[in-house]
Automatic annotation (TrEMBL):
InterPro entries: Creatin/AminoP/Spt16_N (IPR029149), Creatinase/aminopeptidase-like (IPR036005), Creatinase_N (IPR000587), Pept_M24 (IPR000994), Pept_M24B (IPR033740), Peptidase_M24_C (IPR032416), X-Pro_aminopeptidase_P (IPR050422). Residues 550-610 form the Peptidase M24 C-terminal domain. Belongs to the peptidase M24B family. Gene3D superfamilies: Creatinase/methionine aminopeptidase superfamily, Creatinase/prolidase N-terminal domain. This is Xaa-Pro aminopeptidase. It comes from Methylobacterium phyllostachyos. Residues 1-20 are annotated as: Disordered. GO terms for molecular function: metal ion binding; metalloaminopeptidase activity.
Length: 612
């Protein structure tokens, strides 16, 4: 039997505290009291910080503090007599469990948007407040149209949640370090030259970098201001000519980073951003449509600058990984795969006893990864869902919800890691004991969709939306579907959720060689079990004999077996069976040299050819 490695004397990367869960009416009533004091009738509370980040620092967790909802996306609209929380399909089960539905109406995004709810519920002549640091110009325009439809108006105000949040955490101040050129694959000077070339083509004099991910990529730096993503919060002003200026929240800047950036860029405190924006008088300034706050536009225009709202060119450059980043991703996935296999081998025995809990599984997996070497963090809080908890797409186990992994159920574990050379994200669903016929049918349909994406060949210029249906077709044939995208972009020792590429109905960006995405279809039986199968995939060129157009396909980066006990072989066609056997052979060949004999024997059994 495999024993988990002993816990190292270190602080874990994730906790199991109940950060939200059914806040009473007091906090919303306090906010309503603040509304009355400033003479407005409502306030919009997005789940966002001033960079529109998915993962935010503790002092920006306003939505969770106010409502109890801890999901990574959502918007609350608090009016004097009504209130709503709008969430997407990932959170329609989670939100009612965390939020007092007697105070807040849960509104599925599939049914209506926050703006539509405002248009239907704001009354004539009422005033709706918003924080201009938490909305983009496009987002503000949508709010303005919604308020106008209701006969109301918008008003910018200082954030009213902050005004009533007693004990609000202080801003983060993690260390900011240099990301080595050998891992980045490109020098800062060369990156900035490419960006400046794009600015010249667009007729812009400067770029305000408002996305911390783009800041990290462009200047080859990494930070520790938020959990699970190595970001330094702040901004940069990059002129078409001259020295770039970085305005960082944290004062803990490695002197080696300052030296490496000199003379291309200087690092200043975040408090000097206002002066930096004021210096843009007369300049045409590109502001990122996705992350540039309304407040930035207002300050540039007040200084006499002209704001050009559009795409930050860094976003697209960052998405296409270079040779060094691709090599790093492959190395990170091999290291991660060996740790995951050790965990799965241990899980087989530990779960069979009936004494394993969701939290114990999370802790064991983190320990296996830490023992594997070079672990810097988990890339997001591990989703560890047994039985019905597996049907909650973004379930986060807490000590209050911790559940045993029981025989006769399915166990879903979605996890990832941050290594200096790459970011990983993998989901496996395993059977505990003997799975039922419906479980095997659903699992196999999800697997068929997963394989369809992995095997896809498509012409250059194809978007994620055009191949999303490949993953859903086997489920559609049985009248089934799932309510999340099939795949998201992934960074290089950066965010586990990276744009602009994605495989989804909304994935309108063409896939390019070098992009890394997830491949993760699923199926969720509410109150019973969840199934998701996820690998990371790399877009690469494909040579087709006698082909007439440039074609693309995917290399699967993730290395770990699928649970053969859940595969209904007679639902697979010969090509699908051959793909699984070939993938399992590749996993076995790649990982066996890095495993101890017990784990190696388990992997040999887990990757045996399918019967039939």
């Amino acid at each position: 039997m495999i024993e988990p490695p002993p816990s190292q004397p270190r602080q874990r990367f994730q906790t199991f505290d109940d950060l939200g869960h059914r806040k009473g009416p007091e906090r919303i009533e306090a906010l309503r009291s603040a509304l009355r004091e400033v003479g407005i009738d409502g306030f919009v509370v997005p789940r966002a910080d001033e960079h529109q980040s998915e993962y935010v620092p503790a002092d920006a967790e306003r939505l969770a503090w106010l409502t109890g909802f801890t999901g990574s996306a959502g918007t609350a609209v608090i009016l004097t007599e009504s209130a709503a929380l709008v969430v997407d399909g990932r959170y329609t089960l989670q939100a009612p469990e965390q939020v007092d539905t007697g105070i807040l109406t849960i509104v599925p995004l599939a049914e209506t948007t926050a703006e539509a709810w405002i248009g239907a519920n704001l009354k004539r002549d009422q005033v709706l407040g918003y924080d201009p640091w938490l909305h983009t110009p496009d987002g503000l325009a949508r709010l303005e149209r919604a308020a106008a439809k209701a006969g109301g108006t918008l008003r910018p105000v200082p954030n009213l949640v902050d005004a009533v949040w007693a004990g609000r955490p202080k801003p983060p101040a993690g260390p900011v370090d240099r990301h080595p050129d050998v891992l980045a694959g490109e020098r800062v000077a060369d990156k900035l030259a490419r960006v400046r070339g794009n600015l010249a083509e667009a007729g812009c004099d400067a770029l305000v970098i408002s996305d911390p991910h783009n800041l990290a990529w462009a200047f080859n730096l990494r930070g520790a201001d938020i959990g699970h993503t190595p970001l330094a919060l702040g901004y940069a002003i990059l002129p078409r000519e001259g020295v770039a200026r970085l305005f960082l929240v944290s004062p803990k800047v490695d002197p080696a980073l300052r030296a490496a950036l000199d003379p291309a860029a200087e690092i200043l405190p975040r408090s000097e951003l206002e002066d930096g924006l004021a210096s843009l008088s007369g300049a045409r300034v590109r502001l990122d449509a996705a992350t540039g706050a309304v407040a930035l536009r207002e300050r540039i225009e007040a200084a006499g600058g002209v704001v050009d709202v559009g795409k930050d060119p860094i976003t697209g450059m960052k998405a296409v990984k270079n040779a060094a980043e691709i090599a790093g991703a492959r190395a990170a996935h091999r290291r991660d795969g060996a740790s995951v296999v050790r965990f799965l081998a241990w899980l087989d025995t530990a779960a069979a006893s009936g004494g394993l809990t969701e939290i114990a599984a999370v802790e064991a997996l983190e320990d296996f990864r830490a023992a594997g070497g070079d672990l810097r963090d988990v890339s997001f809080p591990t989703i560890s869902g047994s039985g019905p908890n597996g049907a909650i797409v973004h379930y986060r186990v807490t000590r209050a919800t911790d559940r045993a992994v029981r025989p006769g159920e399915l166990f879903l574990i979605d996890s990832g890691a941050q290594y200096p050379d790459g970011t990983t994200d993998i989901t496996r669903t395993v059977a505990v004991g003997e799975p039922g016929a419906a479980m095997r049918d659903r699992f196999t349909r999800v697997l068929k969709g997963h394989i369809a994406i992995a095997r896809a060949v498509f012409p250059k210029g194809t978007t994620g939306a055009q191949i999303d249906a490949f993953a859903r077709a086997p489920l559609w044939q049985a009248g089934l579907d799932f309510d999340h995208g099939t795949g998201h972009g992934v960074g290089a020792f950066l965010s586990v959720h990276e744009g602009p590429q994605r495989i989804a109905k909304t994935g309108t960006v063409a896939l390019e060689p070098g992009m890394i995405l997830s491949n993760e279809p699923g199926y969720y039986a509410a109150g019973a079990y969840g199934i998701r199968i996820e690998n990371l995939i790399l877009v690469e060129g494909r040579l087709i004999d006698d082909g007439e157009r440039p074609m693309l396909g995917f290399e699967t980066l993730t290395l770990a077996p699928y649970d053969r006990r859940l595969i209904q072989v007679d639902l697979l066609d010969p090509g699908e069976r051959a793909w699984i056997d070939a993938y399992h052979a590749r996993v076995r060949e790649a990982l066996s040299p890095d495993l101890d004999p017990v784990a190696r024997d388990w992997l040999t059994r887990a990757t045996a050819p399918l019967a039939g």
